[in-house]
Amino acid sequence: MDFKRFVQNHLNAGVVQTDDPEKSQQIFVANLFSFIGYAVSFLMSVGAYIRQDWLLGTVLLIACCIFFSSHLILRSKRLANPYKASANLVTTSLMLLMVYLVFTGGVNGTGPLWIYIVPPVALFFGGMRKGTRNLGLFFIVISALMFYPNDAWIGTSYTFEFKSRLIFSFLTVSCLFALYEYVRQSSFQRIKEMSQTFEKQAMCDPLSGLLNRRGMREKLQNEFDRSQRYKNVLTLMMCDIDHFKVVNDKYGHDKGDEVIKSLGHIFKSGLRKQDSLARWGGEEYLFLLPETNGEQAMQLAEKLRSKIADTQYKHEDKVFSVTISIGLHQITSTETINQAITKADTNLYKAKEQGRNRCIID
Asked: How far is it, in rounded angstroms, from Cα 260 to Cα 264?
């Protein structure tokens, strides 16, 4: 169990630094590749030393250290983007190692067979554009080395059949991995957009387009924490449409829905960018006003109340208007969010008790 936990911690190093699922996946794969890279290159370097191939053994040992360094980079908290630095190091060092194996031939001329590792690594870490560019550069370099007349640019010799089949098969593998990466990125983007759409739907009221209770809860927590941290004032306004049941009964639910949407537009037009508005219940709205004290919120409430009362609606040959009641509460440092909402709701109840179409603050 201890070894298993060690491996899991090793492969997940750096993942906690990002909330992006794609980056987390990339970081995990970077750790996995570095683990495989330094393990395999170390074993191969040991084999090379046993065969007394000192140069190849040393190169592989250097590659082992570089792959391990790419893992250490992901653990760094000093770099702004450790993943990018690690990915660039892995891709560059791998390509250089492959060029070296093509140049020297590796063990008995089998070195070039390792170049098939390059396409998936380059495309995964670099994406379609950068990965394709890196692959193109790598392809040009190894083609020039292998097909330069009289093998003048390499330290070994390959048959033409071997070189031509290696190049064509490398191109085929590269195209297949490019296609796979394109499909993978496209699928991930579609899933991400769908997730964002569903998340927005989960946070918004479908009728009014405003935040729903769940969405407002998140805003409340964030603003409450910020106000506590910076000692800023924060005020809540709980609003309710007076006698809304009468509107539904007399003019129909479609007209009631129109009133709810209309009030949402009027409310939003009177708010600042940093303010938040939610449809809290059937005909209830909750306003979140950061850096606003009770007196300032009261002025806004009266302005909105007056504007709503002056707005007229038509139904067939009849004209009608609605009024609202508002309860306000400036949150104190000793209160919880739920306590503040309850106090705003209590003031709303007082406004209704005192005749409606009014604003009450404690």
From this structure: 6
- Around Cβ 64, how many Cβ atoms within 10 Å? 20
Q: What separation in angstroms does the CA of 146 have from each of 14, 73, 143, 164?
A: 39, 34, 5, 9
DSSP state of 141: H
Tracing tokens 């393990």 back to the chain, one arrives at: 39
Structure tokens at 88: 């660039």
Which pairing describes strands 324-330 and 234-241: parallel, antiparallel, or unpaired? antiparallel
Q: How far apart are CA 334 and CA 33, in angstroms?
A: 51
Q: Any idea which residues carry the catalytic annotation?
A: 283
End-to-end CA distance of the chain: 59
- In this predicted model, what pLDDT tens digit does every residue of 216-255 receive, in sequence order? 999 999 999 999 899 999 999 999 999 999 999 999 999 9
Rounded to whole angstroms, the Cα distance separating 230 from 93 reads 47
Tokens describing residue 218 = 């998140």
Integer CA distances (angstroms), 111 to 107, 159, 196, 202, 288, in order = 6, 14, 46, 55, 66
Longest dimension (CA), the chain: 101
> What are the structural domains of the chain?
2-200 (no CATH), 213-361 (3.30.70.270)
Contact 63, 101 (CB under 8 A): no
The residues, any chain, with a CB within 8 Å of residue 69's CB and separated by 6 or more, are 89
Q: Which residue has the higher pLDDT, 23 or 297?
A: 297
Single out the residue of 94, 84, 103 nearest to residue 135, CA to CA: 94
Say whether pLDDT at 143 is over 70. Answer: yes
pLDDT in tens, 308-318: 999 999 998 89
State residue 313 phi and psi, 5-degree precision.
-125, 145
Model confidence at 1: pLDDT above 80: no
Provide the token pair at 139: 């392809």
Q: Which residue has the tokens 């009362």?
A: 309
Q: Label residue 20 by pLDDT band (50, 70, 90).
A: low
